[in-house]
Amino acid sequence: MRQAAPPAPHRRAEAVTAVLTLAALAGVIGGPYLLDIYTVSILIRSFLFGCVAVSLAVLWGYAGVLSFGQSAFFAIGAYACGLAFDRLGLSPAVALGALAGGCLVATAAAWLTGWLAFGYGVSPFYVSVVTLVLTIVFVQLIYAGGDLTGSSSGISGFPTFDFSMEAWFQIAGGALVAVTLLCWVLVRSDTGRLLVAIRENEQRCKYLGIATGGVKTLLLVGSAVVAAAAGYAYAAFNNVVAPDLGGFQFGTELVIWVALGGRGTVLGPALAAVLIDFTSALLSGSLPFVWQLLVGAVFVLVILLMPEGLGPGLVALVRRLLIGRRDRATGRGAHLVTAPVHEARGTGHEAAIEIVGVARSYGSLHVLEDITLRGQRGELISLVGPNGAGKTTLIRCISDGRERTAGRVVIRGTEIGRMPPERCVRLGLGRKFQAPNVFDALTVAESLRIARTRHERLSRWRRDHEIRLPEAAMQVVRATGLERELGTEVRHLSHGSKQALELAMVLAMEPDVLLLDEPTAGLTKPERTLIGRILVDLVGNHGLCVLIIEHDLEFVREISSRIVVLHQGRIMLDGGVEEVVSSELVRTIYTGEPQALGEVGPPGTEDRRHRAFPNGSSPS
């Protein structure tokens, strides 16, 4: 299928970027011949620091991973250069081997950091702690290395490349331009939108089947390689390496530069790193302590007055002057296309979902006990019961293998075991939360594109203006008017539109089993009616198995194939719509009359047993 041409604002943005890139390259090529030798020497170092700052800007500003460990990765590359050249001498093989070795060690350190920091249930702030420890461990290893690493004195006087100052300036400046341009292309692409989605709402990304820990680890590894390569060049140019290159202070300075430049951009941190380091070098001789105080004061003022940093303001100014008042390329250019549906999982004979003996306890508190339930394709099962009955807890146990205390959950013939949510989703499970769980910072079009990640690989270099949705998701988008809001940021949608968008995103994954937690909460009567019609159609025409939590029995009566009543963590009734809605037990549960509940006896006993479980099944 032919790719649609990008809209005019997008083309203007690319043209402006090309002009700025050519201007930067011209400055890099001609700069060393116009500046004095001292200024050129300082700027070479500043350019290399800028490369590290840009890598951190993508990591922190777009993916939300605050790392203090970029200094350690930088120093790994620097020490790889210093050690190799000092011990083995300078040759092409040694030079390439040292660069490759530094990048490999940095990759291993970044992977280990990601494995520790991005595991299941780990707080997002944990990565900051782990990377902070990484800088401390690195410095201590250098100190403990003795003569091999130079201990606290570092390594100096080793042979290095015989490049002129002009050549080093062009190498370092060209590297900064290249890294900034590549990162700009990345964050503008569909993959860049995925990074923003992870930063904004990692939980929703996991329930779209995205392994967020793996994505963040891969991004951390990429940033570590950039930092290590910059450190290698730094050591080769300066002919000296020292432990403080990998210390906490330099790592914090990088964070400050990114914050000042604006962590929502890549150009801002690059400029901030170069300007601050260059100015600091000029003034540190005459104002060594006052200058650090000034930088700290500016940092505090920017954080208080401009929390997003200086870069976003600069980008907005350029956009107004050269591109237009607002670049809405992804909204105005995006259009919907019906995608072919992938083959359904399973043989068609087994149940869509089977829950056997599921229990959930928190210490001595038993929230769910011995829940057994089967659902077939083309069946809409409503889970009803008073607040505290365990309905949402049951949904969590179905969609996250680590939530259960006991029991089994089988989706299309495959037991989920202890699988995390993203792996459960890949088995054919889709979950919609009670409150709209969406990406406020993305547009409707971008959100729908992210939802298709399981079936369509996101580009790292461009944005696809064609959004391919299965018919079920397309029906929701068109019926609720979202088709006319593709360029609207989700934060500006009404509550009902956000509910519809989340449902469309879940359906875009083409699930076999759909879990809905009060999808009509907060909706108006017409909106509830519309959602009800859509759900009935999804079950009847698309063959989904839907489990829905709902409190409105009238709404449940209109859409359900079956109703399951939960009370105090147990299934009390499982039967046809009219049978359950008209049941005295249901009225008793909702009105909370203990004496009436005592009259009917415990669930599954006496003559009530046949009414509750007409097929002879039982949760026991």
From TrEMBL:
Record-linked Gene3D superfamilies: P-loop containing nucleotide triphosphate hydrolases
Membrane topology of the entry: Multi-pass membrane protein
Region (Disordered): 596-620
Transmembrane segments: 40-60, 96-118, 125-143, 167-187, 207-234, 254-276, 288-306
Gene Ontology MF terms: ATP binding
Protein name in UniProt: ATP-binding cassette domain-containing protein
Keyword annotations: ATP-binding, Cell membrane, Membrane, Nucleotide-binding, Transmembrane, Transmembrane helix, Transport
One Pfam family linked to the record: BPD_transp_2
Localization (cell): Cell membrane
Alphabetized InterPro entries for the sequence: AAA+_ATPase (IPR003593), ABC_AA/LPS_Transport (IPR051120), ABC_transp_permease (IPR001851), ABC_transporter-like_ATP-bd (IPR003439), LivM-like (IPR043428), P-loop_NTPase (IPR027417)
Annotated ABC transporter domain residues: 353-593
Primary location: membrane
